[in-house]
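Possible regression after last week's pipeline update?

I re-ran a chain I had predicted before the update to compare outputs. Posting the input and the new output here so someone can diff against the archived version. Not blocking, just want to make sure nothing changed silently.
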Amino acid sequence: MIGFLRGTLVGKHPPHLEVEVGGIGYELEAPMSTFYQLPETGQAVRILTHLLVREDAHILYGFATEAERQLFRSLIKISGVGPRIALAILSGVSAEGFVRCVQSEDAASLTRIPGVGRKTAERLIVEMRDRLKQAGSALAQAVPAGAAGSPGDEAFAALIALGYRPPEAQRLLKLVEDKAGTTEELIRAALQAAAR
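New output (post-update):
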């Protein structure tokens, strides 16, 4: 297995990129989230990889972060989700955002990703929720709760801690998202909306 490549970035043509390592050019497929973090061509780069071996090809996938790679590996184990859909998911939402969608059972956000229909989104939520609950899940460690740290994320975590179910917490925050800026203001406004 090839764990990572360190070399010179010689080509960026989404979803393909090329990295030269010791005179050998490696072609990789990568999500847009990785492309956003790449340096200019000709610069040094380190890319985490996943090698997929099929009867007709060996395909190398590249990722900027361990969270992306772990999410990709978890996604391709789900029935009906292949590497193309997994790359589309990672291109459409961050690993942290995907975990939040699963935790809040937000299938609607997942269906906005090209190639992800309602049934696929529901299957993703059910299967990934179980994987995230597993103690020591590599993805759960790669994407800790509240990783993004935005006021909305912190307010969501606080509402969950107060006993609200994830879909209800998300609904309350959507009602008040334009009324407050800080975490405290969001929590206060959401609690007031719940009391009405």
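Follow-up from reviewer: compared with the archived run. The first helix runs from residue 32 to 35. Marking as no regression found.
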